[in-house]
Amino acid sequence: MPRVVVLDYGSGNLRSAERALEHAGARVEVSDDHRTAMEADGLVVPGVGAFSACMRGLLEVGGDELVDRRLAENRPVLGICVGMQILFQRGVEHGVSAEGVGRWPGAVEPLRAEVLPHMGWNTVTAPSDSVLFAGMDPDTRFYFVHSFAARGWEEHAEAPSSRRRSVWAEHGEPFLAAVEDGALMATQFHPEKSGAAGGALLRNWLGTL
Amino acid sequence: MAVAVRVIPCLDVDQGRVVKGVNFTGLVDAGDPVELARRYDGEWADELTFLDVTASSADRETTYDVVRGTADQVFIPLTVGGGVRGPEDVDRLLRAGADKVSLNTAAIADPELLRTASRRFGAQCVVLSVDARRVPSDGTETASGFEVTTHGGRRGTGICAVEWAVRAERLGVGEILLNSMDADGTKAGFDLEMIRAVRAAVRVPLIASGGAGEVGHFAPAVHAGADAVLAASVFHFGELTVEQVKNAMRAEGITVR
User: Can you state the percent helix, strand and coil of chain A, rounding each to 5?
Assistant: First the structure.
């Protein structure tokens, strides 16, 4: 049974993430202890609320360093919701930019849609070689709740990373619903709140550990 | 593809038990909120709402147990409302496993509570619940003709329901649950005019509640601007299933899960 740590940095409803991962077949501990988090087979970085507040909380427990150290050893990390957003270079809220962990290029910005937050069940478009969405019907829906998103990659002059798989969704405009980048994966939606579909995704992730 | 219109059953919970007529067949314990939550999850309910009607604050501990028990077993979003007085109540419910908390009377008494809760916990988990009605002939006229009520719709406040929704949005709520106290219990359909009036004024998602009696009632609420529809008795009494409601909406060209 894979061992998973849900990183506890004062963000939101961790209980659901813990229970959903257990339900999907993991042994789960909610912790901010670096040793425990390094030793786990998988690390989940949750997150709700404001980008800047989440980032502050993450830095307080040294979560950025933890993510870097794990990825340096190719050890799986899964970001959820704002836990995905903070993996980008920066987040822009109310016109103010805050620095992110910077594993991925680009910014997290307000979605341009008629109704915000984007709240509810939506479909995603995943590439055929996706790991997280393997075996899933294209009509499968996941539960989203967010007003900000990465609306695309900012690659500048660099060539896009070939190993990075992008999963897209649309609310007013297209945005990144999930990213699979080697050991680092993340979803903008909440798999732990997405019923059976979310359970299947978590099992797919646990299968990589 | 667009985000699906949500269908949300609402359960009244009193001292840890579901009250107000539950008439499902095959339930071991029709008063057990966790069992009912699981049942609704199985019917493809998109979200669940618990309305805590426990009168005595001493008995409120049971509500946290119910939230914990549900969040441990049912992996769809859970909103809890009723008797939420301040940020500490919100915090406790979120820690117990609620994803969203709805505020009603306490926010009318102190609107800043909405800002405080939104800043501290994030707009995504703060829902404003508005019990609104058409201003009665002996009432105080409001700009929209709708007013906010308290005490289960018995007392008018003279506050314009549309202005209140707009103010709450500015204060940072992430969603509005609009209950029509005129339509509630009539089973004659949603108050479409009220939905339209609030929809035109706010940008946050809008949940329509009150008046659902048959499958055909839901699509018009969505066409009037609701992003989600909530009902209690029609589901509990087994008159309608979530699936029937979704099929009827799908036939009207509405995207559902």
Answer: 25, 35, 40
